[in-house]
Design goal:
Strand content: 15-25%
Mean pLDDT: 81
Low-confidence stretches: none
CATH superfamily: PAS domain
CATH architecture: 2-Layer Sandwich
Order of helices and strands: HHEEHHEEEH
Number of strands: 5
Length: 189
């Protein structure tokens, strides 16, 4: 009983061309997958840098503004919400009370009550006095949260630090990034 495979029925040149085509498709698929993975990693790094930039500038603004003039801090926080991809910006004092929040309705209650899923991350940032990043779903949108602890008054170094929080929309940031790349390819930027 002799068995012949359909692939052996073709000439050698056809077999080589078919094998080369399959190899080319496989290499192209791997290349596209790797390119997508690298693009996503680069995009996440860009979002992190934007979050750092927002929280660091908030830190400077709060340190240079007297706490009696809280309206100025609230105005600065409100201006950050006009940036594309920014969902929330919050400043908490050392006791955990909200000094400024992008949503004035939520600003009257403790931030940890509004977003209990961030309670452990905020406590970690307070205890370690280092930046904390956390991914979360906010209102059904994937978001990146950057929490930055800082000391308002250098004389109070031993106390609990104040907290600056920025929440960025990952989906909108990805769409904006793709749009900017498309415009740049057309030569309009």
């Amino acid at each position: 009983m002799k068995r012949k495979y359909w692939f052996y029925k073709f000439r050698l040149a056809d077999q080589l061309l078919t094998s080369f085509g399959i190899l080319l498709l496989l290499a192209g698929g791997i290349s596209l997958g790797l390119n997508y993975y690298l693009h996503q990693a680069n995009l996440e790094k860009e979002v992190q840098m934007k979050a750092i930039s927002i929280t660091r500038s908030l830190q400077i603004a709060v340190k240079t503004t007297r706490l009696e003039r809280i309206e100025e801090i609230r105005q600065i926080v409100a201006e950050y919400t006009t940036l594309p991809g920014v969902l929330e910006v919050v400043v908490l004092d050392a006791t955990g009370n909200t000094l400024a929040h992008t949503d004035h309705d939520e600003g009257d209650q403790p931030y940890e009550a509004v977003h209990p899923e961030l309670k452990s991350a905020i406590q970690k940032a307070r205890n370690t006095k280092t930046d904390v990043y956390q991914g979360m779903l906010l209102h059904g949108q994937p978001a990146l949260v950057h929490i930055l602890p800082f000391t308002i008054d250098p004389a109070l170094q031993a106390g609990s630090p104040a907290i600056a929080i920025s929440v960025l929309d990952l989906k909108l940031t990805e769409i904006l990034h793709q749009f900017q790349q498309g415009v740049a390819k057309e030569g309009k930027i």
